[in-house]
């Protein structure tokens, strides 16, 4: 059984007088140990799809199951908290806190044991102790993004979902982040789902899902 099963999911937004279909009867499966990328034109509905599979929005039409159980049955809050790490397109970091505090809050609070783990996690993403202890407002866009990735990994979730995590990163850092996603999937057995506009990120995934700009359907490319 797949870790995540998306069954007949449709989604529309109100659009002027009528409705615009963003997702149209989508059927997909996501497995453990696999690195997926989702690509598609701006406005095609990639972020919308992520909010549904991350349990941040209710599915009204169709169903999403985690380990065979509908998200509505698990409870969106429980699902999100226990199983999903999310990197948002606009980071959503707590601006008055440091990177370290942002990661520690996600770990479910300031036990001293967490501090070393959080620092180590940030370090693996290229945020050393000095920067980790600086208010995230005073970090660059790329650095904030890496803090956001560390925060998503803080609880050791089995599903990692990221919305354009390499948008502000230079080539070398992007390569490092791709390597991290590959290791999370292949060495740690995580299900990694990443929306990207980067050809380089997409071509390094195991599976590319291309969201059609108007049909609301996905085309699947299996790379390995
Ligand atoms: N709450 C909303 N109400 C109505 N329409 C919305 C809402 N949120 C998004 N949309 C519209 O739905 C479409 C899909 O939006 P979405 O953010 O999912 O696209 P995207 O593929 O992530 O784009 P990008 O690559 O620019 O981030 C867009 O046309 C957007 O304007
Ligand atoms: Mg988006």
List keywords for this structure.
single chain; 224 residues; alpha/beta; Rossmann fold; six-stranded mixed β-sheet; four-stranded antiparallel β-sheet; 9 helices; globular; binds adenosine-5'-triphosphate; binds magnesium ion
Structure description:
It is globular and about 50 Å long. By secondary structure, the chain is an alpha/beta fold. The relative contact order is 0.19. A six-stranded mixed β-sheet has the order 6-7-8-3-9-10, with helices on both faces. A four-stranded antiparallel β-sheet has the order 2-1-4-5. α4 (about 100-105) packs across α5 (about 110-125) and α4 (about 100-105) runs parallel beside α7. It is built from nine helices and ten strands. It has a single domain (about 30-50, about 85-220), classed as Rossmann fold (3-Layer(aba) Sandwich). It has helices at about 45-55, 70-75, 75-85, 100-105, 110-125, 130, 140-155, 170-185, 200-205; strands spanning about 5-15, 20-30, 35-40, 60-65, 70, 85, 160-165, 190-195, 205-210, 220. Bound molecules: adenosine-5'-triphosphate and magnesium ion. Adenosine-5'-triphosphate (ATP) binds near residues 45, 48 and 89. The site of magnesium ion (MG) has 4 residues, from α1.
């Amino acid at each position: 059984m797949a870790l995540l099963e998306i069954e007949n999911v449709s989604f529309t937004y109100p659009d002027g007088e009528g409705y615009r279909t963003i997702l149209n009867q989508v059927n997909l499966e996501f497995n453990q140990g696999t690195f997926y990328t989702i690509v598609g034109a701006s406005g095609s509905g990639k972020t919308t799809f992520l909010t549904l599979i991350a349990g941040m929005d209710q599915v009204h039409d169709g169903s999403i199951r985690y380990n065979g159980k509908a998200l509505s049955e698990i409870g969106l809050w429980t699902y999100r908290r226990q199983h999903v790490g999310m990197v948002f397109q606009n980071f959503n970091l707590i601006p008055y806190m440091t990177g370290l505090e942002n990661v520690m809050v996600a770990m479910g609070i300031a036990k001293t044991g967490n501090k070393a783990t959080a620092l180590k996690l940030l370090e693996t993403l290229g945020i050393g102790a000095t920067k980790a202890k600086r208010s995230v407002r005073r970090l660059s866009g790329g650095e904030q993004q890496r803090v956001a990735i560390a925060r998503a990994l803080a609880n050791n979730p089995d599903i990692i979902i990221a919305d354009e995590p390499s948008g502000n990163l230079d080539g070398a850092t992007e390569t490092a982040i791709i390597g991290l996603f590959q290791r999370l999937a292949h060495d740690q057995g995580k299900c990694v789902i990443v929306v990207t506009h980067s050809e380089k990120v997409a071509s390094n995934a195991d599976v590319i899902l291309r969201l059609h700009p108007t049909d609301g359907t996905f085309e699947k490319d299996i790379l390995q």
